[in-house]
Amino acid sequence: MPSSVPSFAELLGQCDRSAVHLELRDCYAPTDRFEAWKRGERINWEDRESWWHPYDQLIADTVARGVSVRRARVVSEPVSEYIRWEHHVTHANVTAGEEVRWLPRRRATDIALPGNDFWLFDGALLRVHHFSGDGVVVEDEITADPETVKLCSTAFEAVWERATPHHLYRI
Predict the structure, then answer these.
(1) Strand pairing of 164-165 and 68-75?
(2) For 45, which DSSP code?
(3) What residues are paired with 104 via a beta bridge?
(4) How far apart are CA 87 and CA 79, in angstroms?
(5) Distance between CA 101 and CA 161 in Å, rounded?
(6) HSE (side-chain half, CA atoms, 13 Å) at 124
(7) What letter does residue 77 receive in the DSSP assignment?
(8) What is the Cα–Cα distance from 30 to 90, expressed in whole angstroms?
(9) 3-state helix, strand, coil in the chain (%, to 5)
(10) pTM of the predicted model, to two decimals?
């Protein structure tokens, strides 16, 4: 079924100031890279060609244009195996220019969090991710509803303020 939702690259390309991403799940649909990691395979960070993906280049290009890209993850502790892997591969996000922080879920109890992961572009346009129970993206929704944008923006900033920068977060 064709989607009327603009691609992530299109949305990021229209961004002038900021793109923020809030992740709230402890597990997403497994990927080949995750399965390889579970088998003990590790990324050789010295061999950039082996792990640099189009997503990484898109982020690097966006940051080079002066757009701030931040990602905050709310995670249960002890962390899931998926989150351990995600922590490991976050090196690529950081190398591309994202700022990433982690917040233990127990420290988020008094933050009004939305029910879904999202990207917020320039503080005005949301791309909301809807997942199945096993972490597969079912659909993305675009909204500029002011109340929804305000809730998501406020939630992200509250999480960001409390969260630990990636290089200091130990799992």
Answers:
(1) unpaired
(2) T
(3) 75
(4) 10
(5) 9
(6) 7
(7) S
(8) 16
(9) 40, 25, 35
(10) 0.95
d(CA 119, CA 12): 10
C-alpha distances (whole Å) from 3 to each of 121, 135, 141 are 19, 19, 10
Q: Count CB atoms within 10 A of the CB of residue 68.
A: 14
CB-based contact 120:152 (threshold 8 Å):
yes
Please say whether the dihedral angle defined by the alpha carbons of residues 77, 26, 32 and 118, taken in this order, is positive or negative. Answer: negative
**Look-up of token digits 């977060």:** 169
DSSP, res 6: P
Q: What CA–CA distance (Å, rounded) separates 36 from 85? A: 10
DSSP state for residue 7 in the 8-state scheme: P
pLDDT-flagged residues of the chain (< 70): 1-3
Separation CA 26–CA 115 (nearest Å): 14
* Token digits of residue 149: 């944008």
Under 8 Å between Cβ of 126 and 142 = yes
pLDDT at 3: 58
Of 24, 2, 18, the residue nearest 83 (C-alpha): 24
What is the H or E stretch that residue 128 is in? strand 125-131
